[in-house]
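Limitations

Structures in this collection are predictions, not experimental determinations, and the ligand pose is part of the prediction. Treat each record accordingly. The example that follows, with N-(aminocarbonyl)-beta-alanine as the small molecule, is included so readers can see exactly what is and is not provided: the inputs are given verbatim, and the output is the predicted complex.
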Amino acid sequence: QIDSARLWGSIHETAQFGATQKGGVRRLTLSAEDKQVRDWFRKACENAGLEVQVDALGSMFGLRKGRDMSKPPIGVGSHLDTQPTGGKYDGILGTLAGLELVRTLNDAGIETELPICICNWTNEEGSRFAPAMMASAAYVGDFTTDDILSRKDAEGVTVAQALDSIGYRGDAPVGRQKFTSFVELHIEQGPILEAEGKTIGVVDSGQGVLWYDGKITGFESHAGSTPMPLRRDALATLSEIVLAMESIAKKHGPKAVGTIGEAVIAAPSRNVIPGEIAFTVDCRSADAAIMDALDRDLRAAVTEIAARRKVEVQLDLVWRKAPTHFDPKLVDAVENAAKQLGYSHRRITSGAGHDACNLNTVMPAAMVFVPCKDGISHNELEDATQTDCAAGANVLMHTVLALAGV
Amino acid sequence: QIDSARLWGSIHETAQFGATQKGGVRRLTLSAEDKQVRDWFRKACENAGLEVQVDALGSMFGLRKGRDMSKPPIGVGSHLDTQPTGGKYDGILGTLAGLELVRTLNDAGIETELPICICNWTNEEGSRFAPAMMASAAYVGDFTTDDILSRKDAEGVTVAQALDSIGYRGDAPVGRQKFTSFVELHIEQGPILEAEGKTIGVVDSGQGVLWYDGKITGFESHAGSTPMPLRRDALATLSEIVLAMESIAKKHGPKAVGTIGEAVIAAPSRNVIPGEIAFTVDCRSADAAIMDALDRDLRAAVTEIAARRKVEVQLDLVWRKAPTHFDPKLVDAVENAAKQLGYSHRRITSGAGHDACNLNTVMPAAMVFVPCKDGISHNELEDATQTDCAAGANVLMHTVLALAGV
Ligand SMILES: NC(=O)NCCC(=O)O
Ligand SMILES: NC(=O)NCCC(=O)O
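Predicted complex:
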């Protein structure tokens, strides 16, 4: 059993880096606050006897030796970056539970056959740079390191510049650190476990993701003197697209979601009909056929709306991540650990994307979920109980012990 | 007849202050660019022998003496500020036509019975500070000077600070400069004159205006893991409000318009359901009963949408300007001038608000319109011909001569 109070303590200690007034965390990837938590994490790993490596995209790997160093380690961990108005648990729980399990093994003097490696993946959240799970995507070869290094945030700062500015552009080439398998603990970020009173989610699949960048070009004009029928209003166009995305997702529901999270009017003014808007779309399903249908329906709706309103709408797919089917043997291992520890559990699909979803394309991977309050995440009010976090960390540790061998 | 080339020259000379790449002008009120054009205007007035006064809200008055200085002058002019992506004519034409008519009278050695005063009213556009036509509204007593001085722009800068920063907080109390009557020349900013092939619009009325500040409070949540039915999406809510405003305006059309010109998502992120949005509404009609209906219908729609979507929507009326009915005798004077000069003309309602609409509540006022290309305004592509601008300036001059007496 891990030390529940120690795990809880480290979660709340790191929550100070980027703490917000409403009790959440604002720790955008590669920001000054991210540097603070990375420095903390590096030191904690070193104090636990781990050797820390940083790769060329800033991902951090803390290695605990095993008896058999000829085999790659079992990977655990998650991420330490957050949304602009994020919480204390999303990503953090998984990373610090990795640290906690190492501390527990150290205290108990337990050696494992295979080594264990705790990971902190760069830019899992995807809100400063697109796509989300950027570093693990590069790790599995979905993008080249150079491509990712050149991605820009809204201010035009590249990933390379951001890494250099906080001193976290490491020496290790991306992908050099190999793993035998990977297990990630995370809060559910959805309402199912809580609603069913289950402690552990045995994650067997994950939704695929479509991300688009959109731009609407209508025509700026005077709000008072331009008759309604002559308008080419970019915001009214966006409004129809937002509602179309919503009804398309509902039509394919409950196995689909669709969201417009960003929309910026160029040169806005109270008495000017909006002429240009940039926006982004996020839509998802765990079913590949539904993903295709979402893409098709969205494009058809956009084409129809644009033609009818005589505006131009550009819609570029900037990221497509296929649905994930986690490794059946690893999923069984997670389920066995939950069973042995006596926790109530159920199989579950992840609504969110995770680094484990990327890693699963090149190695056996699986995930452990614990409930979060009201299913709320990507919100400063995100919350979870100490008991559930500890239960998740115990399942993680026992899964890792089964995989690494004692 | 005024000097068409000289008028055209001064319009294009001032268009350099805040010139944009697309051929428009960005000259927000009380900005550095506004200071440039004000300095130019002051010097041009002084060179034309006028005495320039600046009032406590920065409005500028250039006085040409008359034979009878016991009576207040005939006021002419408009404004020199522009929208963020505005044109070269909106406001500028009226102000510089005032200068041109004085120069013409000077050249011809014509004295008038009453004095003539060219005005440049502060913040007519209303995009940096609300409301629009701010200084003329204070002039007629709709707001106190102190109230207006304390209004803030989006960055929190007050009107007082902005005036001081460009050195245009004048000594003259607001309202001290009296007028016998006021005539404003302006581009139509709508499509009617051009469509009917008329050169002069004899403006007999103006739309009333309702401005609202709105705020939507939904709930931020994960775009991937939050099921569609559980969402409280602020952007989907705004989208319904935008489309409701559009259909309400169309329902009361053609005598009504409604626009959402500004909408800002708080802490936006691609994979976060928007939780909070600030927006503004502009709706108008020349018919007071329709204005009441617009207000009623909009509020009812907002209440219904907010309740159904379980979000909070705050909608505050921040400005209400009643429809304008210009002084019949002055309107006749404009029409007579157009007739005598042989220009094709028609009576017309102003879709936009103008300082003359405010001034009409305390003195006889009227307006002269000239066509603008495709009815486009509040756009960098705003355009008008030299011939039409000169025709408008001639009608303005002959109206003023009739009112001031030669
Ligand atoms: N776990 C999580 O919130 N990841 C962010 C990436 C996404 O799913 O949008
Ligand atoms: N003339 C003009 O564009 N005025 C701006 C105020 C408004 O009508 O919105």
